[in-house]
Here is the input.
Amino acid sequence: MELKEKQRKILDVAVDLFKEKGYMGSSVRDLATKLNIKAASLYAHIRSKEEILEWICFGIAQEFFDELQEVKSTDIAPKDKLNLFLDKHLSVVLQNRDVTHIYSNEWRHLDERLPEFIELRKNYQEEVEQLISEIYHAQNWELKSPTFTTRFILHTLNNSYFWFKRNTESTSEITDEIREKLLYGLLGNQK
Amino acid sequence: MELKEKQRKILDVAVDLFKEKGYMGSSVRDLATKLNIKAASLYAHIRSKEEILEWICFGIAQEFFDELQEVKSTDIAPKDKLNLFLDKHLSVVLQNRDVTHIYSNEWRHLDERLPEFIELRKNYQEEVEQLISEIYHAQNWELKSPTFTTRFILHTLNNSYFWFKRNTESTSEITDEIREKLLYGLLGNQK
DNA sequence: CCTACCGATCGGTAGG
DNA sequence: CCTACCGATCGGTAGG
Here is the structure.
């Protein structure tokens, strides 16, 4: 999935558009207009509208995978590993807010490659769950429901951009606040 | 917004459909087929496709408002009030999972009543923020960013149904786990 | 509730 | 990259 320069441009504009109107609410004519070309001309660069969604969903999924492997292969204390995962994942999310949003909310409109995507996602969640389980076990923390906890973590991280007005906080401020809420909750560090 | 019996039936089937395919991915023909009637016959009961989305979004928004007023007018200790709000809000969410999902993710496809909806939502968030601020102040808890915290709470509650396989846990088990994670985070009650 | 039908728009192709 | 065009489908109306 190496994109040519023009395809990159189409991808970027499509991300803007899909974020604003949703995948099903965006027409190829909308997209073409934003690119100052005619709809038919798009098809010199794309196979289909769906292909663009594939670029978005599989591209960011790969980034999440790469980042997870990096965390897994780093040899540090378990608690540091948890923090490293949170920071790395958040960093990818915050650098790709719109893409993450589309990945989270529009993936079901994939067609041809939908089964492949679901499988990829399942594998990813299982790998994260394994990481979390290892960390909890090494720390002797109680982990009642690994699957629930993993989904809670991923969902919280993937939607964290929601809680901020864009660009009023720095990335490190955002990361700190989210890490704190996720680890200690509303009351964990008070009272 | 009192619905007739047939409209209630249309609403219920539409919720199923919109949840599965999204509002923009669902056609009035899909909906009519599920109801075993022809598409044109729908218009004896609805003004437009958008009206159904209005029923969904404004209906559940009203439930959230009512529940908040109830919490606000209950005279109990601040910390109990926080728990009461979490429980009541979660109860509405868990009894209306699909509707909450559509409310959270499809509201932007409202057209005529979009400004009204945005205003309603803003008011609701401000009222929740006010409640949270009062509780924190009464407890002498530190509240760095009320808006961030409010969004974190609402977003976590509104998406909590995501973390469960449907129907394998009881509502009270789910509520307990979510309240715990929200209040104390991953580590707040460990170590 | 139906049949019949509307204009608009959809994703996409042919051919240059 | 364009013009010209395709069949399919869209939300919705007229009239019964």
